[in-house]
Structure formats: structure tokens, C-alpha cells
Amino acid sequence: MDNREKEIENLKDYKYGFSTDIENIQAPKGLNEDVIKFISNIKKEPEWMLKFRLKAFERFKLLKEPNWQKPKYPKIDYQDLYYYSAPKSMKDKPKSLDELDPKLLETYKKLGIPLQEQARLNGIAVDAVFDSVSVATTFKDELTKKGIIFCPISEAIQKHPELVKKYLGTVIPTTDHFFATLNSAVFTDGSFVYIPEGVRCPMELSTYFRINASNTGQFERTLIIADKGSYVSYLEGCTAPMRDENQLHAANVELIALDDAEIKYSTVQNWYPGDKDGNGGIYNFVTKRGLCKGKNSKISWTQVETGSAITWKYPSCILKGDNSIGEFYSIAITNNHQKADTGTKMIHLGKNTKSKIISKGISAGNSDMTYRGLVDISSKAKNSNNYTQCDSLLMGNKCGAHTVPYIKNKNSESNIAHEATTSKISEEQLHYCQQRGLSSEEAVGLIVNGFCKEVLQQLPMEFAVEAQKLVGISLEGSVG
Amino acid sequence: MKEQLQKDFENIIKNLSLSQKDIEIKKFCLDNFIYKGFPNRKEEDWKFSDLNQIIKKNIGELSFYSDYTSTNKVDTSVFVDGLEHNKIVFINGRIEKIDFDYEKKDQIEIIDQSETINKFNNHNSLSDLNNAFTNKSFKILVKKSYQLAKPLIIYHTTNSKIWSKNINLKLDFELNKDSSLRVIDLFNDTSEKNFLNIFYNFDLKENAVLKNYKVDKFENKNIKYSFNNIEQNKNSISETFILSSGSNFFKNEINCNLKGEYSSAFVNGICSLNNDKHHEIRTIINHLTENTKSYQLIKSVLEESSKAVYQGKIFVNSKAQKTDGYQLSKAILLNKDSEFNAKPELEIYADDVKCSHGSASGSLNEDSIFYLMSRGLSYHQSRELLINGFLLDVVEKITDPEIKNLIKNMIGIKE
Asked: What ipTM, to 2 d.p.?
């Protein structure tokens, strides 16, 4: 067995499926006001934050769980979840990385994310979120020099309340849909980023999410604010241990771009997808929304979705500022019994706004994949443009690929173009590759990578390599 | 509305001689409709066209009873000149004339279907309404290997005698092996503020060919819903053309089940709207077996504050390998108040398929206008030329030359 084969062999099963044996502090099981107060209390939150949570909770009680989505799932008992779980060693926050629990450090090392700064060469600042709390943020000093704030959101609530107060809940209000409102009530941690006026963030910022404890819902909240003329590129990665039961992940991500600012948000989502028979896995019900608030601002979402039992999310852009740009690049791969219902919403409100959607879906095994998107050009959004392309690739006849775009044009000066195709890998392409000496699996890998290339190109270098590998692994065993 | 429905229902039942079983079925459908009411925007299929609101706003209270005991005079002036054709004439929802003069009498059978059978693969409440209130429905059966010499024109005429009425029509067609039929639906209304609810069922046996042209051209203030269910067996072909233009609101729904191998379905449509008209075309093409084909082209031109909606769905089940499905919708918005909504949908469970859809909407191309004006045309002429060209594309898809010319003349497109 040569090295490459060994590598593939190692990766065949979900390589992040281990769990870390670590002592936890948990909130009492269930969802009620006391639990919310418990979370707020343990995080030493100010009064207004608790009010924010309770307001959301009041609203949540009135909402019904939606069920229009394509992938159906067994009813979640929201009273049977832990809404807060944190490693015990985090109770008194370690002041530096040296004080961090070695078990945590080891966990992240296993995940390929060394948290010790000296061990890092590629210059990405990381905020690691373990279950409900942020355990470490690297490269803090260097960022502080530039005036960039990159810290856990719980820290930002205490240290920068004026910013959090001003922006939290402005893109995803507490009155939003079921899961977003639930998140507003019980969110535990996440990242906060503020890029001051005119600053170009010198390195990629990254958050790494890990669900460890069982029976826990992870509800993190990320808030990114790019002030006038600034630029930031943000990466997000996620993994979870292999467990038989389904776990819920309902995060909220809010992006705000002011005048001339640009935010690039990339996700490589590799939550545990469940085993081959569809047992276990993460329910990834995430609300991601970006607001191009200022003129000439730009928000770009790139996502590679390979994990999770069910992925249900629509990273969206609200193009409010004139001349603002929204982009969405997505690869979604489902295999075995995975299900995905994902896409984007581009809401054009300002003049001369542009949006572009490139979505590539690949389904194999018994999986089911849906692209669901909305392009809405309002009557005021003069001279706006949208281009949408969504392609699906099917492998085998037990899987499904669906496209459900909603296209609304209320402006005669605006143009919308939408294209979608569904096909399989052609025999000719396979034959050609095999004739050149590639095995059928390699050939499929090559063709799929070519199919995804437009999206992979959008990812930052380090991520692109990882994502490319991930694409190959996710489709392992689906050919033949 | 509930009391009105029940009262009108009793009146209708009284005038019909129905079996007990039939009355029960009708009663059941009525109860279903009372429970569900008119479709509203909460239902996914009616998301863009809230019929409940539209009826409320345009008509207000509807009455469901029509007196079908007295005959209406058939006004021959509405008949199409220059094209010999067979006729079915509906006036205010009552069948006044069925005339297959040009055909061999023993090859076509007209069966009076008094039995109420819910054949329609349609889950919205309008089929319940239709079943409960249709007073008489016919089945037209074309016998084996018979190809009708002349097209059949179905005249849907309403006159000013009716007001705020709901009219329900139902026709059933069976095309046996190797037969063919051309049907033109021609809407001609002088009435106002009525709601027409029309259901057709077509059953195409092996090698049968159906061509259906729906022409709603004349200005009127009625609200219409039309549903075509087309069942297709081996090698059969269906062609549907929709010209949606005259009514205040019109929703055309085509549901096509491609059950037999090598069957194919073509749906082409034009929405040419002005004022505050609101039209919708919804298509559902179900590819249920191997080697089936579908093709759809829908174009809209929207003036003033009109609104067009296209919802198209291609469904391919896991058995339907080698499916070829294509769908394209294009719209030109000419006014800042016009609106175009589309939901082109693909639902695919088989891998060896070729399915694609495209949707584009936008303004008239300024460069093209500039080009034409530089050649000496006025702005108005250039605009008209471009729009005609845009729509002609769809009309050219009509495979029957006689009818193509008829429709071209009707909408005044010159080549």
C-alpha cells in the first residue's frame, strides 16, 4: 500500500469521529427561562443581554416549527436537550494558551488545528469553539495592533457592549424564524469580529466549531462587522464525534458590511454525517445572513457542505446599499443517507446591486439534495442584475437532486438570468480518463473536482486544498 | 359563503336527476370545498396568486347557482371564419351545441357522463368545487385509428346575463390507439366579474396525438382557472399552446403524466398582459418511465402594472432513465410597475437524465432598439418589432400550419 492509498484508507471513515473525554459543566436539561438565566449568569452577561434573550424566548414560545423543507426529520424534543455544555476547566477562563487544558489542546491538534501560536506557520487567526464556549483565540496581539477585534462573542458583550448592542440582531432579529429565534434565546458562544474603518485584515480569521458532549445542542452566534472601507476574509470549519443519536446545531451568523467594505465568508462544513445506514449525524439548521448596509459594499459566501445528516440553510445577502454586491458559491455533496436543502436568498433593495449565485450539488448513494433559492428584485432596485447557475450531478438512481428557485422581478430595469442543469458523469468522460490510466474512482474524483472548480477557486488557498480532498472522501464508495 | 354554497347546491341537486350515490359524492366534494375554501397564498402552489383575495377584490360575493333549464341563443358571429371546424359551444356554462359535422359519425362517440368521478390528479379545492357544481359533463371518445379531419373549436362564451357567478365546466376526452385530435379553446366574454372553473381530462392511448390550443385573447373582466390533466401512453404526443391575455386573472395549469415509453409533451405559452392583469401558467410534467421527453417554452410581455407568474415543474422518478426535460421562461418587463415571478422547479430521482431549465427576465434590450432606430424606425415601431419577434418564437412552435396562421392573425403578428 503506498502512502496515498494509506491516506485514503485512513480517511474512509469519518476521521474526526473521536470524542474527547473531558469534564463538563452543563446547564440543567430542558428549555425554560431558568436555563436562559443560567446561561446568561454563567457568562456574566449584562442586563440588556438577558433581556434580549428573554424577549426572543417569549417570541419562540409563539412560533411553530416549520415543516416545508424537503428533508423531513423525526420531531426534536427541545426539552430533552442540554443548552449549555462547557469543559470544566473553562470555568475560570485561562488567561493564556499555556493554561489551557492539555486535553483540549490535544483535541484540536487531532483535528489538525494547532492552537499554540508558535506551531502555526500559515498565519490564520483561530477562534476555537468547543461545545458551548470559545476555548482559545490565537494571534490576538497582532490583530489588536491594527484595531481589529476578534474574540469570543461572550467576551465582546462585556468588553465592547456598544458595538454588540448596536449590531446584534439587526440582520437576524429576535423575531425571525423558529431556529433563529431559538438561537437568540439560548446562544452560548461564537465569534465576534470588528474591522475598523479602512483596515484590511492582514490574515484570514477562522473559527473552528466542535460539538463534543452528547445530547447537546450547539447554538453559536457569530457577528462580523466590517466598517467603512475595510476587508476581512473569514473561515469556518466544523466537526463532531460519531454518535448514534442526532444532534442539533442551530447557529446564527450575522454579517454587516458598511460603505465600501467587503466580507468574504467561507465555510467548510464537515459535521458527522451519520453512518452508512443513516443513523446519527448532525442536524445543521443554520441561519446565515449578510447585510450590505453601505454603498459599494460586498458580501461573498462560499460554502463546501459535505457533512451533517441534514443540512438546512440558506446563507443570504440583503443588498441594501446602492451598488452593493452579493455572491454565493456553494458545493454541496450528499452521500449515503444524507439530506441537504440549501441555497441562498439575494434580496435586492438598493440601486445598481448585483448578485451572483453558483451552486453545485452532487448526490450519491441514497441521499437527497435540494437547491432552494430566492432572487427578489424590489421595485426600487433599479438597474440590478442577478445571475444564477445551479448544476446538479447524480450518481446512481437511488438519490435525488432537486432545484427550486424562486425568482421575483418587480423592476423593469433589472435583469435576472437563471440556469440549471441536471446530469450524470458521462460514460465518455469516464472512458477517456480510464483510458489514460486512472482507476474509475480517480476518474470520478477528477471529474467531480472539475465540476466544482468554479466554487473551489473562491476558497482561500489552505481551505481549497482541504476542500478538494474532502470532495473526494465524501464520494468514497459511491462509484461502481 | 358557506350558506350561499349550501343553498345553491340544494338548488342544483333539485334540478338534476342524480342517483343517491352521485349526490353523496357531490355532497362530499362540497363539504371538502367548504372546509378548504378558495386557494390562498399559504398554499405553495398559489404562493404568487392568491385566488381567495383576487375573487374577494374583483367579484366580492359569488353565487354558485345557474339556471340551466332555459336555452341560450347561439350567436354565430363569434364563430371563426376561414377555418372549417367542429364545434362545442358553451354559453354561460351551459352546453348549447355539439357539432361534429365534418367527421365520420361512427368514429366519434359523445357519452353523457352523469356520474361524478374525481379523475383529476389535483389536490386543490377547485376540483372539489367543480365536482360539486358541474351539472352535466360529456366524454368525447375518438375511436381507434381515427384522425379528425377538422379541428374542434370549443367556444367558451359568456354574456351579460350573468354577474358574480361561478361557472364550472368539465370535459373528458379519450383518444384511442393511433387517433388524433386538435382542440382549440376560444374564450369570448361579454360578461363581467365571473369566475370560470374549467377541468379537462385527456387520456391518450398508444400513438395518439393531441394538440390543444387555448386562446384567451378578448378583453374581459372575468377570473378564470383552467386545469388540463393529460395521461400519456406509449408513443403518444401532446402539444399544448396557451395564449393568455384577455382576462383579468387567468391561471392555466397543465398536469402531464408521461406513463408510456417514448411519449412526449410540449407546452408553449405566451402571457401578453396590460393594465393590472394577473396571469399564471403552471406546468407539472411527470416523467414516469424511460425515454420520455418534455419541452416547455413560456414567454411573457408585461405592460403597465400587470403581473405574470410561471411555475413549472419537471419531475423524474427513479425509473425514468434517459429522460429529456427542458424548460425555458423569459419575460420582458416594459413598465416599472410590472412584475414577473417564476419558480422553475426540477425534482429528479434518476441519474441518466438530461434536464435543464432557464429563466430570464428583464427590460427590452436598448441596444436593439438603438439599432432599429438607426435604420429609420421610430421608437414605437422598433419596440413593437422586438416584442413581436420575441413572441413569434413561441407561435412558431405550433406544429399545425392552419392553426398557426389562425393564431398569428388573431394576435396580429406579422412576419
From this structure: 0.84
